[in-house]
Structures are given as C-alpha cells and as structure tokens.
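Q: Could you predict the 3D structure of Large ribosomal subunit protein uL16?
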Amino acid sequence: MAFIPRKVKHRKHQKGSVRGASKGSLSVDFGQYGLKAMESRWISARQLEAARRAVTRHAKRSGKVWIRVFPDKPITQKGQELPMGKGKGAVDHFVAVVRRGRIMFEVDGMDEATAREGLRLAAQKLSLKTKFVKKM
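A: Sure. Here are the predicted structure tokens for Large ribosomal subunit protein uL16:
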C-alpha cells in the first residue's frame, strides 16, 4: 500500500517552510491513544508506511489504527551528474508536512501497554520527536 495521491492539482510544488505549530488535529478524536508530533518536519511516505506496519504488527491486527497525516507534497530530485540549469527535476517522492502539536497516529481497541509499545515502535520509524497521548 503506497501513500501517494491519486491526483494532484499541480505536479511540482515549491519548498515552503515547516515553521510554527499545527492549526488542526490537536486532540485525539478517533481512538483512545495517539502519537503527537513535538517538532515540525517533513515525513516521507516510506516513513509513514514503516510506522503503520510497526504499530499494526505489534497490535497483532487487533484494534484499529488511524493515520491522521497524508503525504500530498511532491518533492523533486534532479538526476545524478547533471549540470546546473535545465529546469526543475522530476517528482521523486511525496512527503507529509507535519507541524508540532499534530496528532499523527491514533489507535483503539487495545490496552494502554500494547498501544504505548506499538506507538513507540512507530515513533522509531519517524524522523521527529513524538509523545504518547491519551484521549481527554
């Protein structure tokens, strides 16, 4: 299962910045436990897939997992040993823009110890600091 958008409005995006806090997805809404981003960063589709696999395998397919971020930002890369100029490179992969405070994963249908360990394994696959949170 690859995390890539079915359709994009513009094929190539500008870089943009990943500063500041998240505007939405600040609380655990779907499950009982969540994984919260403590810093702003780009998360690649491959990292998200690895994290999803880690948490679902630890839960032994019991319970439910929600992924609250989606990689919809195309990242371009020019080929090796190309001279400068000649325009922007082709789309290489997709990333999700995650700002601090955002809930990235939510789980339900398992006890707290299993959820905590599953989300810890998922957090190891991601390139940012995270925190385990419970529903209020």
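Q: Anything worth pointing out?
A: The longest helix spans residues 45-58.
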